[in-house]
């Protein structure tokens, strides 16, 4: 058996890890999302969606697939006219039978009148990712919403407390962050704003389960949960590139560990412009441990956006880029690469994975999540973490806190992003585990 701390354990240990994952999923499906046992649970029968773009129509299709009524609106008449076709196409892509068009006719009303969504039980906006645009929608809808209607944002980057400042009933407002592509991502983050009521959170969690998603309740904050864990992983992959580690080697080490995709291919799929936006949110919040990557900024400026542009860290010949590329990846790497640093596969793996462990421990310290299980489900369902490892914290427990501190020792010259957290140090001193 390999002595590497990043090697897979025995078949028995892998089966135990996978059983742990199944336990977490079953536990989360039974979890109402709130601590109060007497919180009323309201099922959603009709969903209003503001925004008929890629995300809005995909969320609508997820609702239609579970036979929920949908009222969909958009300020663009062409988007409204094309919504039914796009929802039906999404249903077919997600494996629905060929009656997709009939389902859409039965369950979807597309309209240019935004007030029409106000009669629904839950109204979700999925529009331009700016505070003024979203608050303008809330201001338009609020006079028409029913006394129990839940207002929801699908924001992926804007803190809920900022959006809630323009909401007249913030107790009935929260975030539900869907992941793209919606049909392939079983996870949704339910973001509790500072004034969101238990009833609102319970309704949002119930809605997530109704459309066969796994909802994780997260306190408001930069990056919420999944991006708080994702950005350190992607950030370190970019730093490894600048330290002279080849693209294919970084990908190999991540996939060898069991990740569904390497971090660089994952960035290509997300879109490097979107990656830059999410990274900026975390850098502004935590500048001491998120490193702005000059390579990523240069790639975005040069039109190397990943799959959508036909070229990122890898080439995608079937893409139809809208803008010409100004420079190649090789040229940009030559500009920004530092003197090469000799690194073993284990050191590369440590640099990729340990920042996620550290960020997970901070999330627990800060009370952003209610349990280690929420973090493990986030990486398993949202980031492609291998089920044979059981989740980032389950895997960390197999090593033990003392071993984690030993692995972090040679990484201390990299600065605050590799500094052990108070929680991890205390766990090592007391021989405790995340799952105690």
Features:
436 residues, alpha/beta, eight-stranded mixed beta sheet, 18 helices, 9% strand, globular
Can you walk through the features of this model?
This protein is α/β, with parallel strands linked by helices. It is 48% helix and 9% strand. It has an 8-stranded mixed sheet, with helices on both faces. Helix 1 crosses helix 15, helix 9 (247-257) crosses helix 14 and helix 12 packs antiparallel against helix 13 (329-336). The longest helix is centred in the C-terminal third of the chain and has 22 residues, at 345-366. The model has no long low-confidence stretch (mean pLDDT 94).
Count, helices: 18
What percentage of residues falls in helices of 4 or more residues?
40-55%
Radius of gyration computed on alpha carbons: 22 Å
Q: Which ranges are low-confidence, i.e. pLDDT below 50, for 5 or more consecutive residues? A: none
Principal-axes shape call: globular
Largest beta-sheet characterization: 8 strands, mixed
β-strand percent reads 5-15%
């Amino acid at each position: 058996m390999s002595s590497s701390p990043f090697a897979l354990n025995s078949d028995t240990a892998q089966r135990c890890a996978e059983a742990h994952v199944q336990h977490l999923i079953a536990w989360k499906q039974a979890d109402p999302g709130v601590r109060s046992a007497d919180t009323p649970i309201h099922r959603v029968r009709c969903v209003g969606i503001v925004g008929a773009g890629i995300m809005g129509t995909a969320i609508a299709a997820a609702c239609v697939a579970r036979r929920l009524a949908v009222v969909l609106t958009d300020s663009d008449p062409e988007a409204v006219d094309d919504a039914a076709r796009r929802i039906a196409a999404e249903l077919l892509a997600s494996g629905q039978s060929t009656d997709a068009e009939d389902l859409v006719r039965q369950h979807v009303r597309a309209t240019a009148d935004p007030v029409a969504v106000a009669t629904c039980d839950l109204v979700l906006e999925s529009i331009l990712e700016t505070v003024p645009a979203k608050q303008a929608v809330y201001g338009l809808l609020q006079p028409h919403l029913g006394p129990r209607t839940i207002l929801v944002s699908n924001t992926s980057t804007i803190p809920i407390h900022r959006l809630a400042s323009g909401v007249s009933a913030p107790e009935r407002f929260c975030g539900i962050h869907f992941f793209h592509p919606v049909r392939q991502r079983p996870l949704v983050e339910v973001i509790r704003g500072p004034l969101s009521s238990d009833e609102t959170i319970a309704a949002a969690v119930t809605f997530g389960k109704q459309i066969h998603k796994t909802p994780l309740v997260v306190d408001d904050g930069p990056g919420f949960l999944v991006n708080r864990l994702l950005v350190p992983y992607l950030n370190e992959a970019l730093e490894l590139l600048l330290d002279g580690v080849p693209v294919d080697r970084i990908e190999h080490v991540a996939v060898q560990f069991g990740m569904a995709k390497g971090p660089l291919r994952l960035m290509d799929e997300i879109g490097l412009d979107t990656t830059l936006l999410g990274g900026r949110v975390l850098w502004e919040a935590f500048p001491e441990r998120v490193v702005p990557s000059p390579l990523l900024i240069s790639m975005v400026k040069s039109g190397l956006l990943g799959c959508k542009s036909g070229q990122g860290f890898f080439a995608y010949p079937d893409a139809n880029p809208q803008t010409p590329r100004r420079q190649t990846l090789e040229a940009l790497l030559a500009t920004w690469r530092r003197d090469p640093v000799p690194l073993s596969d284990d050191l590369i793996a440590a640099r990729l994975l340990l920042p996620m462990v550290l960020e997970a421990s901070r999330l627990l310290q800060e009370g952003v999540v209610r349990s280690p299980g929420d973090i493990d489900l986030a990486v398993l369902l949202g980031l492609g973490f291998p089920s044979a490892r059981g989740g980032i914290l389950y895997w960390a427990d197999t090593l033990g806190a003392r071993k984690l501190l030993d692995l972090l020792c040679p990484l201390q010259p990299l600065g605050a992003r590799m500094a052990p957290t108070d929680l991890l140090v205390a766990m090592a001193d007391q021989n405790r585990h995340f799952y105690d």
